[in-house]
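agent: user wants the structure for Trimeric autotransporter adhesin YadA-like head domain-containing protein from Winogradskyella luteola. delegating to structure tool.
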Amino acid sequence: MTQANRLAIGSPAEGLMVYQTNSPEGFWFYDGVSWNQLTFWDTGEFQSIGGIVQNTTDISNDDFVFGSTTLSGSDSRFFFDKSKSAFRAGISFGNEWDDANVGDYSVVLGAGTASGNSSFSTVFGLASGNAAVAFQGSISSGNESFTAGSGTSSEGDSSIAMGTSNTIGTDGDSAVALGSGNGITA
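agent: tool returned. relaying tokens verbatim.
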């Protein structure tokens, strides 16, 4: 039968198995909720159901990694750390992506560190504050701080530092430093 014929079966019985002759061809069974394709050749960790590739192991706890056999250490890789809901895609040159440097709900694209919870980093940024964002070799250690630019850093909470070699110290909460070589300490 075709996919259209299979899907047109009204109230299929749980466990009903049919052979579908058009793409995706193969045996299909009804589990009481939805149709699932039997994959006899599947001996690996992944399967495709309804066009979604998923692992066949413990989806509640398993981490996901391509390009390496671990989440930590130096290597190019793409991973999702399930326990921290953290995502990385790019390269680590040392310990930037080791467990201690992976914040809950954090993201790194390219290279960098995002150790703060809900932080984001790219292009060698270091985001250690919670909800901090660091771009292009900058350091964003204040909570909810934003930095962009080589040698730029922000330790103040809710602060913004953009440009080259701008610095906002720990007393620079809600401060803004733009341009080049500007420093805010209080």
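agent: one observation worth passing along. The chain has two domains: 3-55, 64-175.
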